[in-house]
What does this fold into?
Amino acid sequence: MRKLALFMLALGLTGSAFATTFTPNLVDKLNSSSPSELIPVMVTMQQQAETDLMQSMTLGLDKRATRESVVGYLKDMAENTQGDIRSYLESLKNSGKVSHVYPLFIVNMISLKATPEIIRQLDNFPGIDNICYEQESFALAGEFTPVGPVVNGYDGTDEITWGLTDIHAPEVWQLGYNGTGVLVGMVDTGVNYNHLDLTDHMWNGGTAYPNHGWNFYSNNSTTMDGYGHGTHTAGTVASDGTAGSQCGVAPNATIMILKVLADNGQGSPAQCMAGLNFAVDHGCDLFSMSLGWYASLITPPDIINFRISSENLLAAGLPGAICAGNEWGSYPVPNNVRTPGRCPPPWLSPAQTLIGGISNVICCGATQQDHSIASFSSHGPSTWGGILPWNDYAYNPGMGLIRPDVSAPGVGTKSCLNTNISGYTIMQGTSMATPHVAGTMALMLQKNMSLTCLQIDSILEVTALDLGTAGKDNVFGAGLINALAAVNATPAGVNPNVTITVTPTGSTTIPASGGTLYFSITVHNNEAFSVNSQAWTEWTIPGGGTQGPFINRNLTIAAGATINRNVQQNVAGSNPAGSYTFWGKMGTGFGGTVYASSSFPFTKTTVASPGEVWYDNNTTYGWDDEQVTMTVPQTCSLSEAYPNPFNPTTTISFSLPVAGKVMLKVYDVSGREVAKLVDGWREAGTHQVTFDATGLTSGVYLYRMTTGNFNAVGKMALLK
It folds into this structure.
């Protein structure tokens, strides 16, 4: 693979003491550091992913299979090329000379901190392209001093914020789309996950990630936001208004915390890429990233690695809303847009007549309430001319790359306050515009989870309100996003295969004075993956018409899992007389798309206001959303393959009491690996995987599963 010319400069600066893989900024740092100082570095391998290969290997696969295939390919490459370096660093973990080791696969690199001695030793390992000093700097793109009236973090007003109405989000909620089932990674300063508007729809990472994500700055599980930026941006994605003000575009989306910056807004590109690595490995559907590095604070290797990561995330199908920056007037074009916002989009508008490569980045500018551009919002074009191996989007001569792609509200933006769980504050910046775009993407994905990055970007751009110069331009991009138009333009997706059954468990005749209807609800997920859905009850009244929802729950149902609840429904004496049909339904929500339904009839002779409770084993459930994975096993287990003996396929089952990283491999009797069946995060529950031995010879094979401290081996015989 390539060796970048800039790294040749390092040899000239240092003589024969260092090889060409040390960047100039690292050379300076090594020469000025004490022997015990831990220096943050990024070790990038020569071998990187081949875009054409990823495209060919995923041709014809659905979105889920595409991600698994791409991630598997990237992980294998990283394991094969980083192995010796990882082992060396592991041997030093208790020496005090190495810390914060984080191997990545989204770019084939390792982020770590090490003493000058260890860093110099790394240059003895083959296959390294460069080692770069990862100097921390302020990376946020928002102003955090409130610019509106705030009393104790809360302005006393209960409302839907202006930004949401400006992009027509409330009209989308009326269609039944509110972000249910969509997991959004917040790449930021952390999130106050106790805020009342967010706390009931945070990602459940199990015991491994008890605080809904990970801290990549400190390499620990402390994800609380001590700065305020991340809580504000998370609120703009998913605040549900519990504390008073409705701030979230997708108020029922699930938030994963990817804390990549310190509580002072400082951080490095390597920490940011580690967060993106985690997001694609743990099932995020999209990410919101209101940060970036402007021209003078980022090195060429960082720029290159951001584009590599953006291209690999595109191949894996993970779109990102990323800010353009607040540097208009501070840096001249084509260096006005921050990295990685300067990376190309998934879809090239017809206005982009100079064609080049694409990536997963949807770059966001900021607008004001009067639809003018914010004075700080960074402008394009950007360029990748002269940056190998791409050398595309030449500028002057050449039009460069149009940046941003779209714009969204970013001035006087009200959202959640990190220091008060019922508080709000007002901020501004392209940081505040970006989560408006991310929230809109979540609404689109709820309607159709199979949308590709290209489809999401193209729909956002085509449906945007064109502002400024006609067509896509370097101020507004394609214009102000319109969530309603974008969701209406999104084709309907394939509904998940789920079933719901409501069955009466008592009398279906209600007396004239009113009474109680007793019944059970059973929900089953027939898919081989977890499904997020609303489940609710309603009834049709005599003479037509619908009342409800009486019960309305947000469920996360593990693959193959069954949920059962014994329920009672009060029927008041004032309800109309006649024949009713009682319904249990699953889908995007009451009044929205229905995935599955079931019903039974009952009769009554008068009228009432319905009341309701949900019982299970004599326990009354409240109204909070509920994450349920029923029939979850109590211990890890690996079942015998079935059939066994087999020809040529067999099924292997395993069970997990909690979510975790699982490895399941097949070996021949000599110990040679012949297949990798599972390598990644799996949710709690029972899972099945098929082993296809076509191409293998008859004989005995072993299969081995590892997860956490659990290790088990099974035996199976292939008879042809």
Summary: The chain has four domains: 5-133, 162-489, 498-621, 637-718. The longest strand covers residues 514-525. Residues 1-20, 144-154, 607-631 have pLDDT under 50 and may be disordered.
